[in-house]
Write a structure and sequence with these properties.
The chain is of the alpha/beta class and 289 residues long. The protein is built from nine helices and eleven strands. Strand 1, helix 1 and strand 2 form a beta-alpha-beta unit. Helix 8 crosses helix 9. The longest helix has 20 residues, at 269-288. The radius of gyration is 18 Å and the shape is globular. It starts with 5 loop residues before the first strand and ends with a helix.
Length: 289
């Protein structure tokens, strides 16, 4: 199975720009955009709660899928996160996916300041593996208990069931975390600012190998690349005219193994997203058809 190429946009959870967020969400929905991602950094003072904003956007849209890009696991206990995700999925008639992040060590002070745990990279990876199990158990909507190194749940009466099988998309980079993704998760969310395009094929091979070893189909795993750039300006990857964007996205899909693209403009947020939706996406879809 091979995933079709999907296109999406980033919407910031900025409290002062909620009207813009709703306008962009309606534009994406009406123009046939596949995904809206919203970053989750609860410790940023100017940001509203990501899951609440996604719920509000879901009520204003009818087809676009929504996901946190990515949910901050140290501040969102997995059993409760499972209930929130299932609830949003039911309210949106099956349009919610769960991007999940282990919590960057560089944000450790901010996470700890809100009462979250401090974790090393290894501990964060272990906690993510446990959280995936808790999420799966919870969405099965049958009573369970779970005992791990990071999460202890003596008895959970979970529910409701999601409206569809929610994808768990991990925001990870290291080889061990990528192997975990191939073994247990449904997708990968990685950003161009952290991961150069030339490194993607090798990292995708790690995911593929781990998936095959676990008896899973690598072709069913979403490979999402957050493309941070500008439509217009210098003629170079993730900048330049529409034609250059189409060339870059086609290369990322056909040569680098990615099958979903979420646009994060570097400036002039609303105008840039409108250009991406109305000019880049139709041309890219045609080129990839």
């Amino acid at each position: 199975m091979t995933e079709p190429v999907r296109f999406g946009i980033n919407i910031d959870p900025a409290g002062r720009r909620l009207d813009e967020a709703f306008r962009l969400a309606k534009l994406a929905d009406s123009e046939g955009i596949d995904l809206i991602g919203i970053q989750d950094h609860p410790y940023i003072q100017g940001f509203v709660d990501t899951l609440t904003l996604i719920t509000s956007i879901a009520a204003r849209t009818g087809r676009v899928h929504l996901f946190p890009n990515v949910a901050n696991l140290p501040l969102r206990p997995p059993a409760m996160l499972a209930k929130q995700a299932a609830t949003i999925d039911r309210l949106s008639q099956g349009r919610f996916e769960l991007g999940l992040g282990a919590g960057s060590e560089r944000n450790g002070d901010a996470i700890a300041g809100m009462g979250g745990p401090r974790r090393t990279t290894g501990q964060a990876r272990e906690a993510m593996a446990e959280a995936i199990d808790v999420l799966r158990h919870s969405w099965a909507a049958k009573p369970y208990a779970f005992e791990g190194a990071h999460y202890s749940l003596p008895r959970v009466e979970p529910g409701p069931r999601p409206a569809h099988e929610i994808g768990i998309w991990l925001g990870v980079r290291g080889p061990r975390a990528l192997r975990l993704l191939g073994e247990k998760a449904d997708g990968w969310s990685v950003s161009s600012s952290y991961m150069p395009a030339e490194e993607l094929p090798g990292l995708n091979r790690i995911i593929d190998g781990a998936a095959r070893e676990a008896g899973r189909d690598p072709g069913a795993i979403t490979r999402l690349y957050n493309v941070m750039g500008t439509v217009g300006g210098p003629d170079r990857p993730l900048e330049g005219p529409v034609e250059r964007w189409v060339e870059t996205l086609r290369d990322l899909a056909t040569e680098r193994g990615m099958n979903a693209f979420v646009f994060w403009p570097l400036d002039d947020h609303e105008a840039q997203i409108a250009r991406f939706i109305r000019e880049v996406v139709p041309a890219a879809r045609e080129a990839l058809a």
